[in-house]
Amino acid sequence: MSKTSIIMDVDTGVDDAFAVLFAAMHPDINLLGITCVDGNTNVDQVVANTFKVLDAAGAGDIPVARGAVRPLLGKSQYAEYVHGKDGMCDLGIAPSHRTVDPRSAVELLRDLIESSVDPVTIVPIAPLTNIALFLGAFPETAKKIHRIVLMGGSASAGNATAAAEFNVWHDPEAAAIVFQSGVPISMYGLDVFMRPTIDREEATTMSKSAKPSSQFAGSLALGFMEQVKTDPVSLGDYGALALVIHPELFTTEMFDVVVDTSAGPARGQTIVDRRGAWLKQLEPLDLEDSAKVRVALDLDVDAVVKLWLKTVNS
Ligand code: RIB
Ligand code: CA
Fold this sequence. Notes:
The protein is an alpha/beta fold. The chain has one domain (4-312): Ribonucleoside hydrolase-like (Inosine-uridine Nucleoside N-ribohydrolase, Chain A), CATH 3.90.245.10. Helices cover 39% and strands 19% of the residues. The strands form 2 sheets. The chain has a 9-stranded mixed beta sheet with strand order 3-2-1-4-5-6-11-9-10, sandwiched between helices. The protein has a two-stranded antiparallel sheet with strand order 7-8. Helix 1 links the parallel strand 1 (4-10) and strand 2 (29-36). Calcium ion (CA) binds next to helix 1.
């Protein structure tokens, strides 16, 4: 299989770490660079956490750039109750010696897309602030994006609120800009997000491994279990990477999707129109604001988990 060239946009947190570790280690992924954004924790902490993951992966010199310090309109709202104060369950993981790229996130996105000889897939697993800013700052380069495979949204219930998933809820205006951009989008949302998991037994075995990547992932998963008081815990954002390189493991369908940017209780909801054409006669979604999005509805959980375990323990 030829390599897939990707750029990740992250708010490293625990499950972003599971995803970055996988992307940096999988032989079929060419990780061109990583952009960091305000989300689970502040953007400087996101940069520091992302470096730690690249160290654990034994990754080469992958450029990491600092992006938006806050959403387009709203204020930062961190998910410390989920990821801990430092975004990585406050495990005291040794800081990295890596240094942040001198370019901003939008400049790194532009340069990597312009210089790539292969089609580039953007994989945001965080609030979409950086991506929205990039689309507005460099529209000609944006036209060269092959596709966006994002972790975000939901065709069912929310997690940040009853209606909205955290990444979209954190910056609904940015999400609306991205969804309406015209770039082909696949959505790895909450309908599948929680299903690939790791349990205490697997995490404990990994945490005792001599392999830095296994030890890092296992310890982080155990720390996550303490933080959220559940076992097993979701591999979360990682699933979006599996959707990129193994779409055959997923059931997806195209739907019209609109992001609610109102101030009401549904703010940040991805409204996924699952009605058939006959019902839509009454009132179709406003096609000005909606987009046709490939939504993940189901997956081969066992295969997706095995793919992650095989890669991060390799
Ligand atoms: O709703 C889940 C998303 O919010 C994940 O990307 C997680 O890392 C948090 O950012
Ligand atoms: Ca994330």
